[in-house]
């Protein structure tokens, strides 16, 4: 039976005019970043979860599809090769006609058989009943691989027949060389329709499962983002409330994760801000209270002096005028000192960055020179050991001066003030200023460094109640501390402790 081989028809490519060029879309410089900023964090988390799941599902689906396809095609190949080899082993030829028993069954109704020579020409083929076989392999499926099998002359054994397996145009094609006649090959072809149908259904199932997985991942990402970012939303609302109303109440903390710690840090910041505002409020209130008394007295004295100089008004005696002038001068000095202390506190509250090497002995000696001029009659017992640190020499000198002024103010006219600077051996040194005055009561000791605090015994004496506050702030700024106690001499013992090293 001869078969005419037809060349496959290749569709011609129809030319088409190129599309008209389109103008490029121009994006403003800040447009794209602004668009990215408009995407919320929750949406980005959802999108990220969906993309990750989509990538994982796509990889798994592709792997499953390729594995199933390989197994199906390999099974079809092995079945067709086995049936063809069995048919060849039970076939015969008389030199002109090739006869072999055809397999039976629905599975084999789709298989096509042909016998070709080395040129690929199909030979006449008949069944074992003598009828011509017409279900031959299409000529377009026979390639050079099948012709090469027909050209095989020697075979290792009947069980190892030369063969080839090929896949052409949706067909599984097998060529086997018969053992009894060279120059021929039996070609069998079976369509892969059933296998491709299974793969098509599998691809639909995998697509649906992948889509469902992406949707579930997006929903889960949305739920996780909304739940996980709820503390962030509360924190955002709290910041907006603080900016809008100035309300510094802390927000509720739930859990112990990173967002909870962020909330705790924000509450700590609110607490520090509230404390700072309270300190400012107290400073303004206390300053107003302290300023009110000398201003009222100063105004009264000045009005009295002005009224006495009016025509027809009774004249003040020279003694009264001198006393009023002395009061006015003293009140001006008190106001000057108070305003200077307030300015110093404000300056020390401001952040300080610049630091310089400071020899503490030199600072103490300069303060002692000024204290000796102010406290005539006061004896100073001084013992200073070298000590240096990084800091602000003017702030330290003001602090030491305040300690010395405090000691001079409370000492009797012929009293003694002991000044000692000594290292402690732990990287710090202490400056001790002890006076021979009445000392500080146990009830007043915890409050002596508070702003505007003055004990009952100290209220008749001049001062603003800010000197020791300046000492405390100077110590804090330099990484040290200040504390008060009782001196062995019976008076007060003020100690300023500062880090540094021996000079």
Describe the structure concisely.
The protein is α+β, with helices and mostly antiparallel strands. Helix content is 48%, strand content 15%.
The biggest beta sheet reads: 5 strands, mixed
- Total strands: 14
- Beta-strand percentage range: 5-15%
Lateral arrangement of strands in the main beta sheet: 9-11-12-14-13
Count of the domains: 3
| Cα-atom radius of gyration | 53 Å
Q: Could you tell me how far the N terminus lies from the C terminus, measured between alpha carbons in angstroms?
A: 118 Å
| Helix-strand sequence | HHEEEEHEEEHHHHEHEEHEEHEE
Structure notes:
This protein is an alpha+beta fold. It has three domains: 33-199; 249-350, Helix Hairpins (Orthogonal Bundle), CATH 1.10.287.130; 355-499, Histidine kinase-like ATPase, C-terminal domain (Heat Shock Protein 90), CATH 3.30.565.10. It is 48% helix and 15% strand. It has ten helices and 14 strands. The protein has helices at 31-38, 41-89, 144-150, 193-228, 230-245, 258-308, 318-349, 360-374, 393-410, 467-477; strands at 92-93, 98-99, 112-117, 125-126, 163-168, 171-176, 184-191, 356-359, 379-384, 388-391, 416-423, 428-434, 481-486, 492-499. Strands 9-11-12-14-13 form a five-stranded mixed beta sheet, covered by helices on one side. A four-stranded antiparallel beta sheet has the order 3-7-6-5, sandwiched between helices. Helix 6 (258-308) runs antiparallel to helix 7 (318-349), helix 7 (318-349) packs parallel to helix 10 and helix 8 (360-374) packs parallel to helix 9. The radius of gyration is 53 Å and the shape is rod-shaped.
């Amino acid at each position: 039976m001869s078969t005419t081989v037809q060349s496959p028809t290749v569709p011609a490519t129809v030319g088409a005019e190129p599309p008209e060029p389109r103008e490029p879309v121009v994006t403003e410089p800040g447009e794209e970043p602004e668009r990215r900023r408009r995407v919320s964090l929750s949406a980005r988390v959802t999108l990220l979860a969906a993309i990750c799941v989509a990538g994982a599902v796509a990889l798994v689906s592709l792997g499953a599809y390729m594995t199933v396809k390989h197994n199906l095609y390999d099974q079809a190949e092995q079945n067709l090769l086995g049936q063809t080899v069995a048919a060849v082993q039970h076939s015969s030829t008389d030199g002109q006609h090739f006869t072999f028993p055809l397999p039976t069954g629905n599975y084999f109704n789709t298989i096509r058989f042909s016998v070709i020579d080395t040129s690929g020409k199909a030979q006449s083929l008949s069944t074992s009943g003598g009828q011509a076989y017409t279900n031959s392999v299409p000529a377009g499926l026979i390639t050079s691989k099948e012709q090469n099998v027909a050209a095989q002359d020697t075979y290792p054994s009947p069980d190892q027949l030369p063969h080839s397996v090929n896949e052409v145009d949706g067909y599984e094609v097998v060529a086997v060389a018969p053992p009894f006649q060279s120059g021929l090959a039996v070609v069998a072809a079976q369509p892969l329709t059933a296998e491709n149908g299974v793969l098509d259904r599998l691809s639909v199932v995998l697509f649906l499962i992948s889509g469902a997985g992406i949707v579930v991942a997006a929903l889960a990402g949305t739920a996780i983002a909304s739940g996980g970012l709820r503390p962030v939303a509360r924190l955002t609302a709290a910041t907006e409330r603080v900016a809008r109303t100035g309300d510094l109440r802390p927000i509720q903390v739930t859990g112990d994760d990173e967002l909870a710690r962020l909330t705790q840090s924000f509450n700590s910041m609110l607490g520090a801000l509230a404390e700072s505002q309270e300190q400012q409020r107290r400073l303004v209130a206390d300053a107003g209270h302290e300023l009110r008394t000398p201003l009222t007295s100063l105004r009264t004295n000045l009005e009295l002096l002005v009224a006495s100089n009016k025509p027809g008004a009774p004249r003040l005696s020279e003694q009264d005028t001198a006393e009023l002038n002395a009061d006015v001068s003293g009140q001006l000095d008190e106001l000057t000192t108070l305003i200077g202390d307030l300015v110093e506190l404000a300056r020390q509250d401001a952040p300080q960055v610049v630091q310089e090497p400071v020899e503490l002995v030199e600072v103490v000696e300069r303060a002692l020179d000024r204290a000796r001029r102010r406290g005539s009659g006061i004896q100073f017992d001084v013992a200073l050991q070298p000590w240096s640190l990084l800091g602000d020499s003017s702030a330290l000198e003001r602090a030491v001066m305040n300690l010395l002024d405090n000691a001079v103010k409370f000492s009797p006219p012929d009293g003694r003030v002991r000044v000692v600077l000594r290292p402690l051996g732990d990287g710090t040194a202490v400056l001790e200023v002890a006076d021979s005055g009445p000392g500080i009561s146990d009830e007043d000791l915890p409050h002596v460094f508070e702003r505007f605090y003055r004990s009952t015994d100290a209220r008749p004496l001049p001062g603003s109640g800010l000197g020791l506050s300046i000492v405390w702030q100077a110590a804090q700024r330099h990484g040290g501390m200040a504390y008060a106690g009782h001196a062995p001499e019976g008076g007060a013992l003020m100690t300023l402790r500062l880090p540094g090293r021996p000079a």
